[in-house]
Design goal:
Layout lengths: L13 E6 L2 H12 L7 E6 L5 H12 L13 E5 L5 E6 L6 H6 L2 H6 L3 E5 L12 E8 L9 E8 L1 H13 L4 E2 L1 H6 L2
Parallel strand pairs: 2-5, 2-6, 4-5
Antiparallel strand pairs: 1-7, 1-8, 3-4, 6-7
Helix pairs in contact: 1-2
C-alpha cells in the first residue's frame, strides 16, 4: 500500500527528493534527463512557481538542447533540437483539453519519431499519452524552511519507468527524503 501525503507517495514506484534552490532543481532535471531514451514522456504537476520550468531548463540542458529552455506557456509547445540530432519537446498543457488537442499539435507523431517530451500540467492530457511515463509532482516546502525549498516526487508509471526509477534512486540519493521528512515540513 502506498502511503500518500499531499499527493506524494512512498513505495518502490515513487521517489521523493528535496531541492533547496533553483540550481538544485535544475540539477535534478539534468540528472533525470541522463536516464531518458527516445519517446520518453515526463509529466510535471504542481502549483505555479513550484519549480516545473526550472526542472525543464535543467532537463533540456542535460539532454543537450541547442537553445535555452524557456516557459512554453503562451506557445503551448516549444521544440528544441539536441546536439545528438534528437528533439526535446517542452509543453504547457494547461490550455489543452484532452486527446483531440494532443492530436492537433502533433504530439503523438513527434513521440513516435523519438522525441522526448516534458509536459507541464500534463495531468490534463495524461489519458492521451499512454501508460508509460514519469510523473513528477512539485510542491512548495514549509514556509519555515525558506521560499526556495521544494519537494519533487517522481512516480513511475509503466515498466520502462519502474525499472529506470531504480537507477534514478541511486543517482538522486543525495536529495532523497522520506515521506516522514516531507510530513515534518508541513
Amino acid at each position: 500500500m502506498v502511503r500518500r501525503v499531499n499527493g506524494i507517495g512512498n513505495d518502490r514506484g515513487v521517489l521523493v527528493v528535496r531541492s533547496e534552490s533553483v540550481t538544485v532543481t535544475e540539477n535534478i532535471g539534468s540528472i533525470v534527463a541522463s536516464f531518458c531514451v527516445p519517446s520518453d514522456v515526463l509529466i510535471l504537476s504542481g502549483d505555479l512557481g513550484a519549480g516545473k520550468t526550472a526542472f525543464s531548463r535543467g532537463f533540456g540542458c542535460g539532454l543537450g538542447a541547442l537553445d535555452p529552455v524557456t516557459s512554453p506557456t503562451f506557445t503551448i509547445m516549444r521544440e528544441h533540437e539536441l546536439r545528438d540530432g534528437g528533439l526535446f519537446l517542452h509543453l504547457d498543457a494547461y490550455r489543452l483539453n484532452g486527446a483531440s488537442d494532443v492530436d492537433d499539435i502533433g504530439l503523438t507523431e513527434l513521440l513516435d519519431r523519438g522525441a522526448v517530451a516534458v509536459i507541464e500540467w500534463g495531468e490534463r492530457i495524461v489519458g492521451a499519452l499512454g501508460n508509460d511515463y514519469l510523473l513528477l509532482r512539485f510542491t512548495h516546502g514549509d514556509q519555515n524552511e525558506g521560499d526556495d525549498v521544494r519537494f519533487v516526487s517522481l512516480e513511475a508509471n509503466g515498466d520502462r519507468w519502474t525499472s529506470a526509477l531504480v537507477d534514478l534512486r541511486s543517482a538522486l540519493q543525495s536529495w532523497a527524503v522520506t515521506v516522514d521528512q516531507v510530513e515534518g515540513s508541513r
